[in-house]
Amino acid sequence: MSDNRLLLIQTLEALPRLDGRYENIKCVNYDPVLGAKRGCFSIVFRAHDVLENKDVALKFFDIDPANLVRIYRRQAFEREHAILTDLQSKERCLQLASGRSVFSLSGVGPSGVGLTIPCEYFAVEWIEKEIDEYFERQQDFDAVDKLYLFNEIVLAVQALHRHNVFHRDLKPDNLRSYTKDSKRVVVAIDLGTAALFSSAPLQPDYVETAGAPAYSPLEAFCHLAGAREIGPLSDNYALGCMLFELFNLDLFTRAYLNKNTHYHFVLAAMEHLFRAGASTGEKIRIWGQNIGTYSNGLTCPPIDGPGSTVPKGISSLLHPVLVGLTAPDFGKRTKDLDRVRRTIWSAIRSLENEHDYKRRLEQMRERRRRREERARLRDLRLQKLLRRA
Amino acid sequence: MLINRVPATNRLLSITPHRLQIVLAEDGRASLTLLLPPLEELAEIRNLSSKNVSLQESATETSTRLSENFSEELKKLLEKRDRFQKSATYLAHLANFAELARDPEQEHAFLAEGEKISGDVFFTHRRGTNLVARGVTKEAERLFRDLDLEKDVGANLRLAYLYVRREDLEGADEFVLKAIKIDPVDFGARMFKGALSLARGDSRQAIHNFRIALEERETSSLFTNLAIAHIRLGQTDKAFAALKRAIRIEPFNQNAVAVLADLAFVEKRNKEAVASLGKFLEFEQKNPSMWARLARALIESGNKQQALDALKRQASIEESSSVFNNIGVTYSQLGHKQRAAEYFSYAMRKAESDTEYSYRLAARNLLSTFAETERFIDLVTVGKVVLKTDTDFGLAHHRILSDIYTLFIYGIARAGKEQEAERFAKQLLLEVPDAHPSLRAWLMSGLVGALSLKRERWAEAELLAEDGLRLVSELDADDFRRDMLKSNAAFLYLEMGKSQEAARLLSEISKWIHKEPYPTATLGLLQVRKGRIEKGEALYREAMRLTRSTYDKDRIAQKMHLELGKKLIEVNKRLARRHLVKAVRDFPITDAITEEAKSVLAALPSDTLQ
Known about the structure:
The structure holds 2 protein chains of 2 kinds.
Chain A: H1 3-14, E1 22-27, E2 30-31, E3 36-37, E4 42-49, E5 54-61, H2 65-68, H3 71-86, E6 101-108, E7 114-125, E8 129-130, H4 133-136, H5 143-162, E9 165-166, E10 175-180, E11 183-188, E12 195-196, H6 218-221, H7 231-247, H8 252-259, H9 263-273, H10 280-294, H11 312-325, H12 337-352, H13 354-388
Antiparallel strand pairs in A: 1-4, 2-3, 4-5, 5-7, 6-7, 8-10, 9-12, 10-11
Helix pairs in contact in A: 5-7, 5-12, 7-11, 9-10, 11-12, 11-13, 12-13
Chain B: H1 39-49, H2 55-78, H3 81-84, H4 88-100, H5 104-118, H6 121-133, H7 137-145, H8 153-165, H9 169-182, H10 187-199, H11 203-216, H12 220-232, H13 236-249, H14 254-266, H15 271-283, H16 288-300, H17 304-315, H18 321-333, H19 337-350, H20 357-372, H21 376-388, H22 403-414, H23 418-431, H24 437-452, H25 458-471, H26 480-496, H27 499-508, H28 517-529, H29 533-546, H30 550-568, H31 573-586, H32 591-603
Helix pairs in contact in B: 2-4, 4-5, 5-6, 6-7, 6-8, 7-8, 8-9, 9-10, 10-11, 10-12, 11-12, 12-13, 12-14, 13-14, 14-15, 14-16, 15-16, 16-17, 17-18, 18-19, 18-20, 19-20, 20-21, 20-22, 21-22, 22-23, 23-24, 24-25, 24-26, 25-26, 26-27, 26-28, 27-28, 28-29, 28-30, 29-30, 30-31, 30-32, 31-32
C-alpha cells in the first residue's frame, strides 16, 4: 500500500464533508488486512450525497506513484467518465452523479516539505445489491431464480452494447442490481476498462487481458484485448462463464483448462503468429486464417458435469448456449444475445411447466438409454467374435 | 573379387527412438587429424540456436504468468470469506483459484473444508485427485475406496489409475470393467479400457472401446491410441487416417506427430508426414528428435537440401554425434563427399567413446565415403583404428556395423593387396562363423568372384557359392548382397562350364540385368560362351556404361576383351589378338585375367601380328 494512497484514504475518511456535499466517506475497494485492492485505476469510496440525499460511489484516480507516471491509466480514468457521460439517462446503465472534480490532498513529502497532490474524482450512483451470492452461494438459489438473474445480466450487457460500449471486465463482482417496479434490474458497474467502439485504444498493444483472466477469452490473452471490432465478443465470453458458474461448483476457467490441457499451447501458438508490430487488423486476419487449425481440439466442459446443479431436463438447452458464448474463435462466438435470452426463457418456461420439463427429461433419458443399449450390443458382438476366433 | 559393390552411406540416419505413448486418461577416440571439422558451418549452426522458438517454453511461461494472476484473484476472493465461509461453492471457487495459482496444499485445505461443510462427493473426488498429484497415493486410494464403487464411475477409474501406476494391470482392469458396467458409454472408462487392452496386446478389444469412446468425444489422444492399435494389427491405412485426425484436432500433439512420422518412414510414405512435422516445428523448434524426423522424411522424399536445413536446426539444439552423422549422410547423398567425410569425422569426435554405437556408425559411414571417393589408404588407416577396439568381433555380428569389416577388406583389396584381403576374408569366415549373414554373404560372394578366375580353386569356390546361396534367405529382402551372391555364383558356374546352373541363377536376378553392371556383364559372358558374340559384347558394353567407377568399367572391359579374344580365335585371329592385347595392355586390372590373356596370346600364330 503506497503512502499516497493511504494518505488519501485516511484524509477522506476523516473529512466531515467533501466538496460541500459528500459525507460518511468510506473506502470500499481496499482490504487493509489482506492488503488487497480491487480495480487498477481507482480508489472507490462510498459516501452520502447530502444534496441529492442518496448514497454515491466516489471514484478517485489512484494516486499511487506508479499510476501517476502511467499516462494510459489516467487516460482510462478520463475515458470512464466520458463513457458514463454518454450513458446518462440510458436504461440499465450505471449513472453519473457528478462531473469531474479535483480534491487537493495536502501532505508532507520525504524531505519534510509540505506538498499538495491534486486528486481527480467523480461520483456515480451507488447500487447497493451485489449479485455475487448467486455465484458464491449458488446452492441456496433455485434454477429458475438463477436463470431470471442471467437474463437480467444479459440485458445489462445488451444495454451497454446498444450504446456502443463494451465492458471488457464483466464478472459477478462488477454487476449490481436494484429493484424497480418490483422487478430486479441488473447493472454493470466499474467501467474502468470499458471502451467505446469509436474510441482509439489507449495502448498500442495489449500484453495483458483488459479484465479478470478468469473471465477473459483466448483472444484477450494474445494482444487483441484492445481490438474494437471484437470488443463485445469478450463480454459475451464472460456471459458464458457466468452462465456456467451459476450452476457449477467449478469456475468455468478451471473446468476449461482442466479439459483442455493444451490450451496454453494454442495460446502460445497464436501469440507466436502475431508478428511484432502487426496492426490489429492484421492480427485479426492472422487469427482468422489460423485459429481453426489450432483451436480444433478445444472443448467446452459440459454444463451438467460433476458438481453441477443444472436440472437435467434443461441441460440440452443450456449447454449449446454455453458452447456458443465461450467459443475459442471469436468469429464463431454467439453474437446474438437476444437468441441467448430466448433460450434462457425456454429453459425457464420448461422448469415452470412440469409437463414440459418431464417431457424433455424423458427425451434425454431415452436418448441415453439408446446409446447405452447400442454400446452393450457392440460389446456382446465383440465377445462373440473373439470367442469364435 | 573382394572388390565387389560395398554398402553405401544411404539411409543410416539414426534418430532417437520415439516410445509409443498410450494415453490412459494421456576416443580411445581415434585422433583423425587428417580431417578437419567443418568450422564455418558449425558457426552457422550455432547462430541458428538463438533463433529457435519453443511452444513448450512459451506455453510454460504463459501458464506461469496466468498462475500469478490467479494468485491475485485468490486474494480478492478471500476478502469475501466473512460472507461466504460456510458456502460449498465459495470454498470450491477458492480451491479452483488455489489450483490455478499452483498452490496444491492450499487447494487441498479448501477442498477439505468444502467436503466437511457439504459432504458432496465432488470435493472427495477433487481431494483425491489433489492427493494423487502430490504423490500422496495411499491416502488417495483410501479415499476413493470409501466412495460408492457400485455407482461411482470416476472413483473406479481413479483406482484403476492408481493400480496402473504400480503396474497392476489386472487389478486396474477390474475397476475399469466395473466403471463400464455402471456407465457403458462413459468416455473416460472406454478410453481407459481401450488403453489397457492395447497395453496387454489386445488390439481388437482396444479399437472396439476407442470407437465407443469416440462417439462421446473426439480427442487427439484417443485418435492416437486408436492409430497405435491399428498399427499393431497391420492396418496402416486406418492408422494413418486416425493419426491425421489426431493431428487435425491438436497439431502440437508430439506423440501423434512422432508416431505418424515413424509410421510414414516404415511404410515409405514419408511425404505424408512432412506437413505435420513442419507445422509442429513451426512452433516447437527446440525439439531435436522432431527436427531429425523432419530431416529423415525430407531425405526419403527427395528433398535433401531442405533435410540438410532441418538437420542444422537439430544440431543447433543438440551437438550430438548422431546429428553430425546425419548431416554427413545428407551431404553424401547431395554428392558433397568431402564435406560428408568431414562431418562423419566430426561425429566420431562428438561421440562419448569409441565403443558407442554413434561413433561406430559415423566410422562406418566415413569408411563408406572413403570407398566411394577411392581413398583406399585412408580407408585402411581409419578402418584399422576402428577395428582395433573390436577385440571380440562384436561388430561382425551387427547388421549395419559389420559393414566396417566389409569396407575394410574392400579397402585392402583396392589398395592393391588382394591376397591380404582374401586371407583376412577367409580368416573372418572361419573365426566368426556366426557373423551377421550380410557380412558372411559379402565375404563369400567376394571370395567366389576372386576364386572363379583360378581354375585350381574352383572346387573351393563352388563350396563357398553353395554355402553362400543357402544364406540368401537370411538376408533382408532388399539387401543387394542377395543378388550379388547369385551373380558371382553364376559367374563361377560359367567359368566352370556349368551354363545351365548359371542361366538359372541369372534368371533369378533378371530384374538387375540392364540395371546393375555385374549381373549384366555375367549375362554377356553367358551369351559369348553360347557363341552369341555380338549380343554378348553389347551386354558387356552396356554393363560398362552402368558402372559407377572407372575401376569397375576397366575390370569389366578386361574380362570382355579376354572372352571376345578367346571366342574369336576360330573365326578371326587378328581381331582375337586385338582383343587379347587390349586385355593385357589397356586394362590390366585383374592379374589372373592378364595372365590368361597373355598365355592365349602366346599360343596365337605369329601371322596374326600386324
